[in-house]
Amino acid sequence: MMKPMKWLAAGVLGAAAMGAQAQVNQIKVWAAACANCHGTDGRAEPGAISLAGQSKDDLLQKLLDFKAGKRPATIMHQLAKGYSDEQLADIAGYFAAQKK
């Protein structure tokens, strides 16, 4: 039988794991908005720019440049403004982790 402190510790660890999973799922939701132009999980069809496997730092810098209006775009500058810098970093990390 578990002692009360062990139950508490197990509950805290379980809640932390669920919170981490929810964060990963939220990042996937944000990244899914990119699929129309950049393909599922960032693997674009020929003629479009693939994001999968690119450097996180490079992707983040491009996103921040779009957001700041420093990089020419048709729609990316508008889309990037809808995310915080931290969300953009999470999105860049998600695509960097995808296989090409």
From TrEMBL:
Keywords: Electron transport, Heme, Iron, Metal-binding, Signal, Transport. Gene3D superfamilies: Cytochrome c-like domain. Residues 14-99 form the Cytochrome c domain. The keyword Glycosyltransferase does not apply. Pfam families: Cytochrome_CBB3. The keyword Electron transport applies. Residues 1-22 form the signal peptide. InterPro entries: Cyt_c-like_dom, Cyt_c-like_dom_sf, Cytochrome_c_Oxidase_Subunit. This is Cytochrome c553. It comes from Hydrogenophaga laconesensis.
